[in-house]
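Internal tracking record. Fields below are filled automatically when a chain is submitted to the structure queue. Please do not edit lines marked as system-generated. If the sequence contains nonstandard residues, flag them in the REMARKS field before resubmitting.
Queue: standard
Priority: normal
Entity type: single polypeptide chain
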Amino acid sequence: MNDKKICFIVCVNNDMYIDECVYYIRNLEIPSEYEIDIITVQDAGSMTSGYNAAMQESDAKYKIYIHQDVFLTKRDMIYDILRIFKDSSIGMIGLIGTQKLPDDGCMWHGKRVGRIYTNNILSSKEFIASEDNEKPYMQVEAVDGLFMATQYDITWREDLFTGWDFYDVSQSQEFLKAGYKIVVPYMDKPWCIHDEGFLNLDRYEEFRKIFLEEYMGGNNH
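SYSTEM-GENERATED OUTPUT FOLLOWS
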C-alpha cells in the first residue's frame, strides 16, 4: 500500500460531468511528496461493484470516492484530509453526515452536520446542515456518498446493494463495525459544489429495507 498516494474514484455515465469533476481534482494543491491518481469506472452495474473494482485496482492508502457531479472547490483540502487521517482511529471522512442515524435508516430525516454548495433542478444554494460545527471535526454515524475519503480498504457490500442507494450508509456501518471512527470536518465554507440535477429514487425503498434488515435488526418505520 502506497501511503504517499491519493486515489480519486468516480463512477461515470456522463462525460461532461466527469470532465468538470477531473478539472477540479487536477487543480487541487497536493503536498510535494504525494501523488494523485484518478480512476473512473465507466457504466458500473452498481456503485458498490464499481467501487470494489477500483479499490482493488489501486495501491493508494488514501482513496476518495466522489460522485461525478461533485466539484471540489477547496484547493488545499488534501492537507486537511491528511491532517485528520494522522489519527489512525479515523477511517472515513465525509462532507455531510449525521451524528445519529434515524430509525428509518434515512440520513436525510435526521439532524445533519457539514456543508456543501448544492445545485439541483429546483434551486441553487449553500446548504448548511448544522451551525454548531465543532473543530476540527464532528464524529458521525453515517456520511453522504457524494464524498467519502478513506484510509483503510473495507469491501463495499455489493452482495446487498446492487444499485445506487444506501451504499454510503452501509459502508459507514461497515467502518463502524470494524472499529473505526467516521468524521465530518469543520468547514467555515463548503469544500465542494454538488450539481445533482434530477434524483432517481426508483429503488430507494427496496434498498432501505435491505439496509434495515442487515444493520438495524429489521427495524422498519
